[in-house]
Amino acid sequence: QFSYVLAPMPERCVIIVDQDLPPGLAANAAAVLALTLGAREPSLTGADLVDGDEQVHPGLIPMGLPVLKAPRATLGELRGRAATAGVGVIDLPTFGQQTNDYDTVRAAVAATPAAELEYLGVAVYGEGRPVRRLTGNLPLLR
């Protein structure tokens, strides 16, 4: 018999995108980061919703997921600070919107030294206090 231990749900999740992306590309960056966040943290999916006619709708994230903005130049720094702050971090390198071929993205990242990677967005998640310290001064994407 197997027993599973679920990791606790992160207290806070935030997505930060490059403030200069056009709306469609900013939405795409946020969606890609959110999809990966959901895959890495399955506890973020809430209970299914049931409407008045008893039709079932898939569960949604039961907490806020703010999408913030920051200059592209600071996203790499934010990623590094998040990694050393003991919170989860997911990044979207610029190569992610240059092609639809994932192998090409992987090859481009592999050929680029870490210090030279640029990011279109970053997701930060974990305990509330460190996530707020990292992202609390960033404005909402509007």
Task: Describe the model.
This protein has helices at residues 23-40, 72-84, 102-110, 128-135, and strands spanning 12-18, 49-50, 56-57, 67-70, 88-93, 119-126. By secondary structure, it is an alpha+beta fold. The strands form 2 sheets. Strands 4-1-6-5 form a 4-stranded mixed β-sheet, with helices on both faces. The chain is globular, with a radius of gyration of 17 Å. The N and C termini lie far apart (50 Å). The model has no long low-confidence stretch (mean pLDDT 93).
List the helices and strands and how they pair.
Layout: E1 12-18, H1 23-40, E2 49-50, E3 56-57, E4 67-70, H2 72-84, E5 88-93, H3 102-110, E6 119-126, H4 128-135
Question: What is the structure about, briefly put?
Answer:
This protein is α+β, with helices and mostly antiparallel strands and 142 residues long. It is 34% helix and 20% strand. It is built from four helices and six strands; from the N terminus they run βαβββαβαβα.
Observed structural traits:
142 residues; alpha+beta; four-stranded mixed β-sheet; two-stranded antiparallel ribbon
Task: Tell me the Rg in angstroms.
Answer: 17 Å
- Strand coverage percent: 15-25%
Structural class: alpha+beta
Order of strands in the sheet with most strands: 4-1-6-5
Percent helix among the residues? 25-40%
N-to-C span: 50 Å
Q: Quick one: overall form?
A: globular
How many beta-strand segments? 6
The H-and-E topology, N to C, reads as EHEEEHEHEH
Q: Give the biggest beta sheet.
A: 4 strands, mixed
Output the number of helix runs. 4
- Rounded mean pLDDT is 93
Low-confidence region ranges: none
